[in-house]
Amino acid sequence: MDLKESHCWGRKRKTEKFGAKPQAKAGPELFREMHIQATFTVSGPLAQPTVAWVGEDVLLSCHLSPKMDAREMTVKWVRGPLVVHMYRMGKEMMFVQAPAFQGRTKMLREDMAEGKVTMRIHQVQLSDAGQYTCYFQAGTFYNETSFDLQVAEHRKQPFSVAGPAQLIQAKQGEDVTLSCELFPKMNAQDMTVNWFRNQTLVYRYLNGENLEESQGTEFQGRTELLKHDMAEGKVTLKIQQVQVSDSGPYTCQFQSLDSHSEAHIELQIEG
């Protein structure tokens, strides 16, 4: 199961039969098709897998890179062979939706002009769990990304996360450590732990493994998770040879099947 943020290279659909002569297009139709013949990648949620609880609503988001207007594209969400939601050229194509999702989905379009789409599933059920694929198509070019939704029956053991209240300061070239911990104390070794700086993934720990390949490129080879206190719910992120560009807000996020919480830490690097 691939739980990292997905980036899939796109491909073009063959739309003409072999030997057929393409029909010439002119005027606004030609301009419109040329305008949307762009290449792009599709990315899913940074925090994966996405966890929801029975009876709640869940938001599933994906976005294009580079940013571009998706309002005239085809956007489709599927789970296995089932069409969860489909949008085409400004219209919701509800007639293709699988019966299990009818009346329970809505596409939020506020950020579509910047290439981001969010689908809301109302009153999540255990049967909604699985791998979802978000698919964009512009003209003959399309791309997609997949990620997992886990659904828990109820929250068994909620927790909160706390980090240092004060600003963390360091000088360029030094190593710095950022720590956060669970309250009440509990074993975090089987949890997912994500560290972000703004929207960039700094570090991901999942099922006892470090998923370094999903890191932002600027942090690769410079981070380490100190795990000696994880059994008591404390994790420490070490960033080596910090740079001024490493400054900013960091988020420490713990996630289990039953609960999730996060804390925020501010880091300032002096040149």
Automatic annotation (TrEMBL):
A Gene Ontology biological process term: T cell receptor signaling pathway
A GO term for molecular function: signaling receptor binding
Recorded GO CC terms: external side of plasma membrane
Main subcellular localisation: membrane
Compartment(s) of residence: Membrane
Domain Ig-like: 28-150, 158-270
Top-level taxon of origin: Eukaryota
SUPFAM superfamilies tied to this protein: Immunoglobulin
Keywords, alphabetical: Disulfide bond, Immunoglobulin domain, Membrane, Transmembrane, Transmembrane helix
Residue ranges of the region described as Disordered: 1-24
Keyword hit for Transport: no
Matches recorded under Pfam families: V-set
Entry annotated with the keyword Transmembrane: yes
SMART domains: IG (SM00409), IGc2 (SM00408), IGv (SM00406)
InterPro entries found in the cross-reference section: Ig-like_dom, Ig-like_dom_sf, Ig-like_fold, Ig_sub, Ig_sub2, Ig_V-set, IgSF_BTN/MOG
Protein name (record): Butyrophilin-like protein 2 isoform X5
Organism: Phascolarctos cinereus (Koala)
Taxonomic lineage of the native organism: Eukaryota, Metazoa, Chordata, Craniata, Vertebrata
Gene that produces this protein: LOC110195228
